Amino acid sequence: MKRQSGFSIMKRLLVELKPLAPVMMITITLGVLGFLTAITLTTLGAVAIGTLLGEVTAISFKGALYLMALCAILRGFLRYGEQLSGHYIAFKILAILRDKIFLCLRKLAPAKLEGKDKGDLIAMVTSDIELLEVFYAHTIAPIS
C-alpha cells in the first residue's frame, strides 16, 4: 500500500471542513478581532507611557487605562469565543469521521473482520480520530 504524503492527508482533512465553513468563518473572525485588540492594548500602553513622559497624545493617561481595560476584557471574550468555535468544529468533524469509519466497518463486518481483535480495532480507530482533535482545534482554527 502506497503511503500518502503529509500534504495530501492535510488536504483531505481540510475538505472535511466544508459543511462547517460558516463556523470556521466565525472562528477566523474572532481570532482576527482578538489579535487586533491585543495590538490595540499594546498601542494604548505605549500611549499611556508617552502621556506620563509628557508627550501630547490624543488620549489622556486615564482614558488610555480605561481603554486598555476594555481591550483586555474584550480580548478575553474574543479568545474564549475563538476557542469555543474551534473546538465545536473539531468535535463535529470527529463525529463525522467516526460515522464514516464505522459505516465502512459495518460494511466489512462480520466476514472481513473475522479473526481480528475487534475491540483493539475499535480502540485504535477511536484513538486515531481523537488525535485529529488537536489538528482541527489547535492547528487549523488558530492559523486560519
Q: Could you outline the blueprint of secondary structure elements for this entry?
A:
Blueprint: H1 6-15, H2 21-52, H3 61-108, H4 118-143
Describe the structure.
The structure is a single chain. With 144 residues, the protein is an all-alpha fold. The protein has one domain (20-143). The chain is built from 4 helices and no strands. It has helices spanning 6-15, 21-52, 61-108, 118-143. Helix 3 runs antiparallel to helix 4. The longest helix has 48 residues, at 61-108. The protein is rod-shaped and about 80 Å long. The model has no long low-confidence stretch (mean pLDDT 84). InterPro entries: ABC1_TM_dom, ABC1_TM_sf. GO terms for molecular function: ABC-type transporter activity; ATP binding.
Based on CA inertia axes, which overall geometry fits?
A: rod-shaped
Number of domains: 1
Largest sheet at a glance? Answer: none
First CA to last CA: what distance?
Answer: 33 Å
Whole-number mean pLDDT: 84
Total beta strand runs? 0
| SS-derived structural category | mainly alpha
Q: Can you count the helices?
A: 4
Radius of gyration: 23 Å
- Which percent range describes the beta-strand content? under 5%
What is the string of SSEs from the N terminus onward?
HHHH
Q: Low-confidence runs (pLDDT<50, min 5 residues)?
A: none
Q: What's the helical proportion of residues?
A: over 70%
In a few lines, what is going on in this structure?
With 144 residues, the protein is mainly alpha-helical. The protein has four helices and no strands.
